[in-house]
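Practice problem: predict the structure.
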Amino acid sequence: QLQLVESGGGLVQPGGSLRLSCTASGFTLDYYGIGWFRQAPGKEREGVSCISRSGGITNYADSVKGRFTISRDSAKNTVYLQMDSLKPEDTAVYYCARGFLATLKARNYDYWGQGTQVTVSS
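Answer:
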């Protein structure tokens, strides 16, 4: 059974850090580009970061550039999103998704996880 499972979300104070994980079962993540997206209440889903199949190409939304880092661990069939210097506006449900291209456009992804909540608040 194909599954993408996000984990690592939670409540953190402004300026803090979290590391999100996206772990696959039923398929090999290395064969796909992986994207991280987020959706805050009342807002559209936004592309946050993506990584190519080789891991050699990464891309970030301007709003997170310099604060977030995406990486992949083939042995663990997992992609990570390290989030530092978190701000209240980063509060959202974060989703990972697989696609054949690594882009920040949701339409390029065919399979999605269920999401993990990130709340940045003092």
